[in-house]
Amino acid sequence: MAATIVLKLVKEIREDLPRAGVPKLHHILQEKFVAHGIKIGRDALYQLLGEHGYLLRYRRRKHITTNSKHPYKKYPNLIRDIKYLTHPGQLWVSDITYIRLTHGFSYLSIVTDAYSHKIIGYCLHPTLHSDGPVNALLMAAKSKRQSTLIHHSDRGVQYCCNEYVKLLEHFQIHISMTENGEKWECVSH
Asked: How far from 87 is each of 81, 90, 97, 146, CA to CA, in Å?
């Protein structure tokens, strides 16, 4: 009988929150469990929902943000031999990550100071076009203080395209790119 009540309560919650997982359901339903005199822990709730087909299936697909098969020039790795950073403004690292939305993705481009780990430029953009990274770089360029600065990224088309490279050259920033896809490659401080 208690299992029937629990399943009914879960079904009601899932009508409003269809992607609510077991920990969230367990938390939301605590007061109702007490009101019905039901004592059920999170693990028992997992088991009950699993037995009745109420567990959610998560499809984890890796979303690719780097396309390094393009006709643009790929630059050498200038940071391979740098062992330590001594102060902010020596090395910037750029990357793009995706944010899963209800209907698709948005892409967050960031420029990070490798010494301080401070994000100095960012742009959330609906596509993987170079507009996002370019805007993040323009924001970061406002904080440029050092005359000698290295910009390091993967070899993605967004960082190799003419517009991005011309901006780096305009701001007199040395261009460095990964060899094997790891953006941080060998730098510590």
From this structure: 17, 7, 26, 10
CATH of 62-189, one of 3.40.50.10490, 3.20.20.70, 3.40.50.300, 3.30.420.10: 3.30.420.10
The structural domains of the chain, with segments of one domain joined by +, span 2-51, 62-189
pTM metric for this prediction? 0.62
Confidence of residue 7 (pLDDT cuts 50, 70, 90): very high
Which residue bears the tokens 């742009």? 123
What whole-number distance in Å separates Cα of residue 80 and Cα of residue 62? 28
Nearest residue to 26 via CA among 61, 54, 67: 54
Q: How far is CA 118 from CA 88, 162, 167, 184, in A?
A: 9, 27, 21, 14
User: With 90 as the cut, is the pLDDT of residue 132 above it?
Assistant: yes
What letter would DSSP give residue 9? H
Indicate the SS3 state at residue 91. strand
Closest CA to 183 of 65, 86, 88: 65
Contact 128, 102 (CB under 8 A): no
